Protein: peptidylprolyl isomerase
Organism: Himantopus himantopus
Amino acid sequence: RVHFACASLTGLSLRPSYDRGATVAGVVGVGRLITGMDRGLQGMCVNERRHLIVPPHLGYGSIGVAGLIPPDATLYFDVVMLDIWNKDDKLQITTLSKPEHCNRTVENSDFVRYHYNGTLLDGTPFDSSYSKDSTYDTYVGTGWLIKGMDQGLLGMCAGEKRSIIIPPFLAYGEKGYGTVIPPQASLVFSVLLVDFHNPKDGVFLEHLEVPESCKRRAVTGDFVRYHYNGTLMDGTLFDSSYSRNTTYNTYIGKGYIIPGMDQGLQGVCVGERRRVVVPPHLAYGENGAGNKIPGSAVLIFDVHIIDFHNPADPVEIETVYRPEGCNVTTRDRDFVRYHYNCSLLDGTKLFSSHDYEKPQEVTLGTNKVIEGLNSGLLNMCAGERRVLIIPPHLGHGESGARGVPGSAVLRFEVELISMEEGVPEGYLFIWHGDPPANLYEQMDLNKDGEIPADEFSTFIKTQVAEGKGRLMPSSDPEKVIADMFRNQDRNQDGKITSEELKLKSDEDQEKIHEEL
């Protein structure tokens, strides 16, 4: 295809192609052009401009062209080459850039999303997806595209850039397209493949890092806490839990998240890093989501599993060390001293008793520690060491606590330092045998008919020292005795009378233990 201006030697202007508003197309070297033009066009490049002087015997000779070119006229042509192609031409594909990693390439029936700039062979632009601020989305190999583009997209990787030169018989042929693509025009497309998928695709998993020890894998119904970066296939970040400085927490297999992630999180281990590639029909489909996820977009999630649990999980107990000859173990109401280290399952340290001057102290079964820790401290021997895995419903729950994220699974390393036998719930002191028959008289040490606090304290300490009874274990026995005195001094006048003094059995008919 050429544009030209033509004049005869006499200066007569003939009909230039510019005046007709259309290029001239012709086949060179087969006798369809005058000999001079046939020869003059040989060896021209696209966008080359030539002046051709054609003598009469290589033009229209002694006959001329009636009403236009006189006989024996020498012709002057000013020619610009716009396009060249041959019927034997094939698609010309040049790879401009290609990602280092390419696990898959475009095949027929794939759905592709790509950006393009379209020009004629002389560089004249005719269309661009960039000007529409949207990718061109279509199926490959199903007749939705011109044949040359159908072929030119095959074998591309997501993120690859190509230059595709398409001869007219693989484009719009003799008819062209509207006013922007002339007949017999070769087309040049600069293409960036943003992403692609096949409607039959499932979720693709890439295991980036799997812990050597994986005792359990997540299944439907488990509650998972994980961090993630979400990107499009071209690397554009659309969301990240890291930017919010909090994990994404959800049940899997229950429909709370997109189907692709529901599937992609199945079988994960705590601490695992996994890449989940989700096709649009398992993500946000043709409509996309918001202004960051386009319609029909393939999504890539790089996830890091922090922890997971099931609402039915008990405390997991691993005994690391148990002393030989362990005959006495802890029970509810026992007073225990223990050391502990508490962390998240990803190793993040939360708390440690070693940061303080003395071990932690607690009476078991009094709701002073989280339920899972209380359970984990039962049936232990002094000197025993355990690792406890405590699910959140037996820990700090959905809300968490200061320094503890909501729904976090906790890991405790505990060592029982010592234990003291406890007393039943509601008791501050129990007798090892029957209480004295004349209890009030024995307690009234100076026999003045009333028992002040110091007499009461001396009596109780003597009973403990002689092994006749025991106090509720505590780090502050004086406070326990003071509480006992206050319970018996019913009118709070600072002394106990014989009418005020009552055993526990007198108050609640409890026959197993008797308490002041």
